[in-house]
Amino acid sequence: MTSEMLAKPMGTNPVVIRRVMAGLRDQGYVRSEKGHGGGWTLACDLSRVTLRDVYVALGSPSVLAMGNRTETPGCLVEQAVNAALGQAFEDAEALLLVRFGEVTLAMLSTDVHERLIARGKSHHLENTHA
Amino acid sequence: MTSEMLAKPMGTNPVVIRRVMAGLRDQGYVRSEKGHGGGWTLACDLSRVTLRDVYVALGSPSVLAMGNRTETPGCLVEQAVNAALGQAFEDAEALLLVRFGEVTLAMLSTDVHERLIARGKSHHLENTHA
DNA sequence: CCATTATGCAACATATGATGTTTCATGAGG
DNA sequence: CCTCATGAAACATCATATGTTGCATAATGG
Q1: What distance separates the 2 farthest-apart alpha carbons in chain B?
Q2: Cβ distance B111 to A75 under 8 Å?
Q3: Distance of CA A124 to the CA centre of its chain
Q4: Considering only CA atoms, which of B95, B101, B1 is closest in space to residue B50?
Q5: b/e map of B75-89 (b: 16 or more CB within 10 Å)?
Q6: Is the model's pLDDT at B120 over the cut of 80?
Q7: Please, which pLDDT band fits residue B129 given cuts at 50, 70 and 90?
Q8: What are the C-alpha distances in Å from B56 to residues A123, B47, B52, B53, B97?
Q9: Cα–Cα distance between A28 and A26 in angstroms, integer?
Q10: Residue B130 pLDDT level (bands cut at 50, 70, 90)
Q11: CA separation (Å) from A21 to A11, A28, A63?
């Protein structure tokens, strides 16, 4: 698949695709080839790569929208809040990462194929996007 | 306390303070008075108000930085991912809210006072910010 | 061997939301 | 009645995410 083939149905730009895929390529999950007939190819066992692996490959962006503003604040109120909620934030983040790690790409692939069948029509990537 | 007295040590603007406090006032946790000698006063029992109450009063902003992009997407891949992670997001959010609900403002107040003593000096709000 | 086609990379543009600022109206004291 | 406070709206600024453009590089296929 070329970046353009991927970008079109997702309604975005080929360069954006390349930016995202770069992380996956660096981890060896996909390979990219230049030139005529080039593009992206899978380079991993889908049953051995989880959404957590993907998450990490993409740079482990923060999963929480809030958290301690400062790790070691001078403000005593902030210190108190950090002490009260710090563990909660860590726990919530850890929970999400564990769940991410329980989902393999193979599971998603299987699910997508089942949904395709359930929809009862033949499809190409192009029209799986409404 | 006036908005200005609160804003200064937090390094922000009085208007920003008013914006935030408006939510707390609407819930009756604080009261505001205009004119000479006016400002903000506490109007609740600190032991009966939790950080979750504050969170809700502030408009329940999303606690997660990610989540389902669409609730009922046409894209089958997105459907599969939503199915795989939707519960995880809900669980993580629920966990955080529960933890928020376990912390009362009274607990924070006590903690702040202990930290004041531990620091071994007398303080005013002005210099509790480093 | 060279035109085509793809990625890689950097720079720039745009959109969005959070935060900060200004201004004016209103009300409460002294 | 002058001062000082909040309330509200409009505007400015900033940071980030996303999208776009341009060009270099590499590989294929005719």
Answers
A1: 62
A2: no
A3: 22
A4: B101
A5: bbbbbbbbebbeebb
A6: no
A7: low
A8: 44, 17, 6, 5, 10
A9: 5
A10: very low
A11: 16, 10, 20
The pLDDT assigned to A126 comes to: 47
Query: Going from the N-terminus, what domains does chain B have, and what CATH number goes with each?
Result: 1-44 (1.10.10.10), 46-123 (no CATH)
Helix (H, G, I), strand (E, B) or coil at B69: coil
- What integer pLDDT is reported at residue A130 of this predicted model? 43
- Distance in Å, alpha carbon of B55 to nearest chain A alpha carbon: 11
Q: What is the pLDDT of residues B38-77, one digit of tens each?
A: 999 999 999 999 999 999 999 999 999 999 999 989 999 9
Which bases of chain C come closer than 7 Å to a protein CB? 3-11, 18-23, 26-30
A61 touches strand D (CB under 7 A): yes
- Distance in Å from D5's C1' to B130's CA comes to 28
Which chain A residue shows the shortest CA-CA distance from B73? A130
Two structure tokens written together for A104: 């393999």
Query: Nearest residue of A to residue B97 by CA position?
Result: A88
Does the nearest atom of strand D lie within 7 Å of B43's Cβ?
no
Report the distance separating Cα B22 and Cα A122, nearest Å. 55
Please state the φ and ψ torsions of residue B104, each to the nearest 5 degrees.
-90, 160
Instruction: Give the model's pLDDT for residue A101.
Output: 98
